[in-house]
Structure formats: C-alpha cells, structure tokens
Amino acid sequence: MRLIEELANRHRESELALPIWFENRTLRLLDQLKLPFEEDIQSIASIEELGEAIRSMMIRGSGAIGLCGAYGVYLAAYQSKGDVEKIRQAGDLLKSTRPTAVNLMKTVDEMVATAVSAQGDVVETLEQKAVEIIERQLEFEYQLGKYGAELIEDGDTIMTHCHSGALGGAGYGGRALSVIRAAHEQGKNIHVFTCETRPYLQGARITAYELKKFGIPHTLITDNMSGFCMNTGKIDKIVVGSDRVSANGDLANKVGTYMHALAAKENGIPFYTATSSHTIDFDTPSGDAIEVEMRNADEVTQIKGVRIAPEGTSALYPSFDITPNKLISGIITEKGVITAPFEQNLGRLNEKVNV
Ligand code: RUB
C-alpha cells in the first residue's frame, strides 16, 4: 500500500484535483454528486461499494472510471491477498457498471492480465501496475493538453459540454480541460462557455467548479443555447471529451455532443475532441457498434429528487450520443492531433505524431 499512497501525496502537492486515491489503507473518493456545494470524501470498503459509486455517478467521467479499474482491481487483490479468481470477479463487476466508456474495460483487462501472469507477489505486482496506469494517464493529460493548446489562439472563446476535466480524469484537467488549462497556463487570454448538460448537470456543477478553481473566465449556458451562441459569433472553437472513439473516428460522448457538432459544422466552427490513445477502440469499427448506456428515466423526470414532470410521464435517457467523424475537425491525443482521413490516421497513431 505504501507505493500507491505515496503517489497520492505527491499528486496532491502538484496541485492536482484527485477523483480517487488511497489513504490510511482505505480507498477514498470525492463524491461528485455533491459538487459544487460540498467537497465530501467517501470511504469505499469493498468492490461492491465501488461498483455502486460508479453506477450512481458518485465518481464519473471516462478517465476517472478508468482509474477505478486500476484502484478497484488492486483493492480486490489487497483484500483477497492476491486470489486471482476473486480479482477476476472484481474486474467483471467493475466492467458491468457502465458500458460506454472504454477506458474502464481496458484498465480492468490490463490489471487482470497482470494478475494472471504475475511471477512474484500478486498484490505487490498489481500495486505497481496500478501506479503505472495512474501515472501514465496523468502524463497523457499533460501531453494532450500541450498538443491541444497549440490549436487555441489568444482571445479564443471555447465551448465545452459535460465535464471532461480533472475530477473526470487523473487530476490535471482530464481531457478537454487539459487543453483549456494548458492554454490558460501559457498565458492565452481565453474564455470558456460551459453547457450545463442536462440531466445530470455536470457542466454547471463540475466544469464551472473546476474552471473557477483554475481561475479561467467562463460563462454557463443551457445546452439548447449553443446554436444561438455559435450563430451569433460567440464561440470560436469547441473542445469536448470522449468516452469512446471507434476505429473510424466516430465519437461517443455525453448526449448533446452530436447536436453541438451539427451546429458547429453549419457555422464553420472547429469541433475537436480531446482524448487519449486508450480511448480509441480499434475493436469497434464505427460509432453504430458502440453500446450507448441507457439510464433510468427518473433521472430526466426529476432533478436531485425533485419531480419536474407530471407523475407517470415517460422519459428517455440515452447517456451518450454518437458524433460521426465527418463532423470532427481533429482528435487531440497525447501523441498529437489526428485529422481526416481518421481511419487511416488513427491506425498510424502508434507510429506518428501530428498526422
Ligand atoms: C461524462 C462525459 C464526459 C466524458 C468525456 O459522462 O460524457 O463528457 O466522460 O470526458 P458521465 P473525458 O458523466 O456520464 O460519466 O474524456 O474527459 O472523460
């Protein structure tokens, strides 16, 4: 436990906002459901509790739930004293929580494969692996932030959707906010329009909270205002995160993203997704093969438990939508910015930078 606890201490000293960490041999996470009004830290005692925290959106965002894969499988290893069967079951439980974000699946698979092939002590081997995954994801945030910031000009207003930030990632800025934070740290005078993101309000509750923390000027809009803002010249660029990018560059991201991308195309506004190579799913050929998580209709008919529609109203909540690659100007990754033709250029991702 020493290695993984020291990592959290180091990260806190580097002004990172951590979504999840180990402290005093206990897994802790910041309850994102209570933001921005309360910074409530929850202790997680079991893999079942972690699974429930992910399902309930207490911890969310594709990067952060990817980290849950590393922390969770290590927790199972620690508690079971390295029982590989229990580790595998914990991995399956975590993977069943949210189907769309591919990072969680990949991280769990990497941890379980490490357990299966471990030569020495399974618990120690998995602790080292978890630390490696967390460090790697953080490094990706710095790198993609640097590449993405090159696309941002002094004076730009950037629109983002949902929350693709530090608490949805490894602590620097996740994906979209790593680009924005890096541009701001470079001294560029930027302004951010954040869409509130119905029904869970991640944009209003969490993106606005982080932008305030980073000292980045911002304006909150409701999702249905984005077309007006684009059409009246208020937006220069759009940067969103990504829960999964298929091999041809189609993008699964928080529902509403597709609508913004259509309006961006119509108005000639560059539309970027910030992601990492780990979110590109080469096993999924195109967006129509991505499973879109359907959540409980109560989350639409109620806000924080308060009913906003008549009793008995039926509602639909697809948690994500698919933006086809033809609407995407570039995919910002830790290896550079990928542009069309996406299928070909994503395929060369491992070889080339800035294709
Ligand atoms: C979060 C969401 C974010 C993505 C992308 O979904 O859709 O826009 O996670 O951001 P939820 P990132 O709140 O349902 O988990 O790529 O930074 O994760």
TrEMBL record:
GO molecular function: isomerase activity
Active site, per annotation: 243
Keyword Thylakoid: no
Keyword Amino-acid biosynthesis (UniProt): yes
Site (Transition state stabilizer) residue list: 162
Reactions the enzyme catalyzes: 5-(methylsulfanyl)-alpha-D-ribose 1-phosphate = 5-(methylsulfanyl)-D-ribulose 1-phosphate
Record keywords, A-Z: Amino-acid biosynthesis, Isomerase, Methionine biosynthesis
Pathway recorded for this protein: Amino-acid biosynthesis; L-methionine biosynthesis via salvage pathway; L-methionine from S-methyl-5-thio-alpha-D-ribose 1-phosphate: step 1/6
Recorded family membership: Belongs to the EIF-2B alpha/beta/delta subunits family. MtnA subfamily.
Oligomer status and interactors: Homodimer.
Protein's name according to its UniProt entry: Methylthioribose-1-phosphate isomerase
